[in-house]
Amino acid sequence: MITMKTFLFFACLLISTSTLCSQTHIRISAPKYKGDVLTLCRYDNYITKKEKKLVKCNIDSAGNSSVMIDIDSVQYIFMHYEKLIYYFFVEPDSDITVTFSEKELLNDKEKLNPFFEPLYIAANVTTTGADNINRQLMDIDDKSNDVILAVAKNKKENDRHFKDSLLTVFKNSLVNSNNDFVNNYAKYRTALIEYLFKLKPLKDLQNEYFINKPVLYRNPAYCELLNHINEKYFLHRTQQSQGNAFREAVNKGNLAEIRKTLSQNEYLRNRDFCDFLILQNAYNEFYDSNFSRAALLEIVNSIAKETANSNIKIIAENIRNAVVNLLAGYSPPYFELNDMQGNKTSLQSFAGKYVYLGFFSVNSYGCIQDFYLMKQLAKKFSEKIHFISICIDSKDDIENFVKTERINWTFLLCDNNKDIIKEYDVRTFPTYYLIDKNGKLLKSPAPSPSEDIYQIFEKLDN
């Protein structure tokens, strides 16, 4: 029997669930992508910028697609395809048409360059509603970029009057919107100009834009300004009064002491905002040598465990996953790729033996030189080590190379899978990792065949 109390509970549950997410209808027009599958993504957070895949869009023979996504707030959405990244914003419970008009493929040289930067393009968005927030946000970006470029172009970095006049023009061009997200976007773009041009003391910026203000975790303009203001904050703090004590607290992973020290600044007395800054610096410092990596990881884990803020928890967990992915003693990023016969293959397929994992291109001279050395290593150590090469080239190129060179270890096809290149932090070809029998990273990165990997292999047990 359903009691009134039970009925009210489910009614409240339904109401609260409906307010959490609303469906947004996205129609896609992409004539040059006929037959392609495009993936719409968003960032899980603006510190690690972990990409979260929202939906796959199958572009039909007419160049169109239609999808629904569930969102609870205004979201920055992007679609990455070869050379281009299209981006746009969507609101909950809206109906929009997005046009991807251009398509550019990577050439062989660009595919070999892990540092290749794609071109960001604002997608053309039309909507059935009266307000088009994309038009408003793009207008803010265009005008703020014009201010920054004008100062650089005219070499007026030291001309306070020139910069003030440009800022005044920018402020006067802003139109108050019915959308809080747009107004905040404009507000923090204004603050960024003030910060970059030193038009206000840092303390005044902190007082005006952050003290007693909500933390806007999903507003790119807000997060970009914070990234600038808080860059190397930990390191700068060690150079101030009680700097040695602060360094010691960080290197011991003492979160309570770090919070206590930082909260002496009124700017950081809000616990969530303070934790946001701590996470930002812990993530950025992890890749430098200023503080203990183990301690930084402990700080991140402590925040993830203690916080009641869902946004902070997501950021902390994303940071932890990002930094431990390639740490010795941890499991490497999961992948599932096709081998030369079209079979799906993952690292789990090679459990029970060591794995020498390499990222290659058969068009790279350095890789080809290593292949000749790998032949000798594979012949000697194949009883206890699996040799796996993940290649970024076309299947035909790889097949021809393997056949010509008579190579007999495992080759997997990257198939333009940029995720795996990013997750394994491949910055040059070849790059190597050594994984133990239990699937944990043993050497990360590992020496190449031309370095001392032979001696390491000799010491591995069977």
Supply database-style keywords.
462 residues, alpha+beta, Immunoglobulin-like, seven-stranded mixed β-sheet, five-stranded mixed β-sheet, 17 helices, 20% strand
Structure description:
The protein is an alpha+beta fold and 462 residues long. It has four domains: 22-129, Immunoglobulin-like, CATH 2.60.40; 136-229, no CATH class; 237-324, no CATH class; 336-459, Glutaredoxin. It is 43% helix and 20% strand. It has helices at 4-20, 108-111, 133-153, 160-173, 180-196, 202-209, 220-229, 233-237, 243-251, 255-262, 271-285, 293-306, 310-324, 365-381, 395-405, 418-423, 453-459; strands at 22-29, 37-43, 51-58, 64-71, 75-81, 84-90, 95-99, 119-122, 124-127, 336-339, 344-346, 354-360, 385-391, 410-413, 431-435, 441-443. Helix 3 runs antiparallel to helix 4 (160-173) and helix 12 (293-306) runs antiparallel to helix 13 (310-324).
Largest sheet: 7 strands, mixed
Global geometry: globular
How many H/I helices? 17
Poorly predicted segments? 1-19
Biggest sheet, strands in spatial order? 11-10-14-13-12-15-16
Mean pLDDT: 90
Give the strand tally: 16
Whole-angstrom Rg: 26 Å
State the separation between the terminal residues, measured CA to CA: 64 Å
What is the class of the largest domain in the CATH system? Alpha Beta
Whole-number tally of structural domains:
4
Strand content: 15-25%
Structural class: alpha+beta
Helix proportion? 40-55%
